[in-house]
Write a structure and sequence with these properties.
Blueprint (H helix, E strand, L loop, with lengths): L4 H8 L24 H17 L9 H9 L4 H11 L6 H5 L19 H7 L1 H7 L13 H11 L2 H23 L6 H21 L24 E7 L4 E7 L4
Antiparallel strand pairs: 1-2
Helix pairs in contact: 3-8, 4-9, 6-7, 7-9, 9-10
The structure holds zinc ion.
The site of zinc ion (ZN) has 6 residues, from loops.
Length: 253
């Protein structure tokens, strides 16, 4: 294993034991020094997930961005999208080349330039239409994408940063619609649709009553009389998403 100079100096400065003994391999995450898949999983999980959630207290320069993302009043799928976008984890065509993708590289929305993350959110004509104007001020000069997001997270009021997340998410969804459904929206309809959808989401959150609890059954369920079919049904409807569902069933045979 190769260490950088600083680590190597630290290793060399470790005082050696005066007692005679043989070197041995030890796995620090396990109290007895034994390696186990379980302990390796815990280390990997802490490395890949834990530092992100704990980044606000570890001197991570992007801590304000992570904090703004995780406290944003947006659907969780939008916050997770924002986190993946910030870390360049979205499957743009350029990103896919690192995984062996050999197909077209042009942007699926404008067909003008290669589809990198920066192109989708900073250069593509739809993105520029939506984000160049105040209050988002997408810069004309090339700015590293993550730096721009960090700057927006630290300068925009939280409500505007939340809207920015919604608009970025709608740009990515528009790109996916163009790729998989051969259909994309104009910038004006994209803004109108996504902000209306977001407003409805906010309203649904306001009307949500956390003290709600299922009604207690007033009486115990009773088996029906012989030769009588009894069916139990229930339903729910979520207006903000225009989705509902019902279910029903009878007692097992
Ligand atoms: Zn484009």
């Amino acid at each position: 294993m190769c260490f950088d100079d600083e680590v190597a100096l630290n290793v060399l400065s470790i005082p050696l034991s005066r007692r005679f003994g043989f070197d041995k391999v030890a796995w620090k995450p396990n109290k007895k020094g034994f390696f186990s898949v379980k302990s390796a999983y815990i280390v990997a999980r802490e490395f890949s997930i834990g530092h992100i959630f704990a980044s606000a207290s570890t001197g991570d320069p992007y801590a304000p961005l992570w904090k703004a993302l995780w406290k944003a009043k947006v659907p969780s799928k939008v916050a997770i999208f924002g986190w993946r976008a910030a870390l360049n984890l979205l499957p743009t065509r350029v990103a896919l080349t690192a995984k062996g993708y050999m197909g077209e590289l042009q942007c699926v929305v404008c067909s003008q330039l290669v589809e990198s993350l920066e192109h989708v959110f900073c250069e593509c004509s739809v993105a520029r239409d939506i984000l160049s104007a105040p209050p988002f001020f997408l810069p004309l000069s090339t700015l590293p994408w993550k730096e721009w997001l960090l700057e927006r997270a630290t300068t925009l009021p939280s409500a505007l940063f939340d809207k920015l997340l919604i608009l970025l998410w709608s740009l990515w969804r528009n790109r996916n619609d163009a790729l998989w459904r051969n259909h994309s929206q104009t910038s004006s309809s994209l803004v109108a649709y996504s902000l209306a959808w977001y407003e409805e989401y906010l309203q649904s959150q306001k009307s949500f009553n956390p003290t709600w609890a299922p009604l207690k059954a007033s009486k115990r369920w009773l088996a029906p009389d012989v030769d009588t079919l009894k069916m139990n049904v229930d339903g729910a409807f979520l207006p903000s998403f225009q989705h509902g569902g019902t279910g029903g069933g009878g007692p097992p045979e």
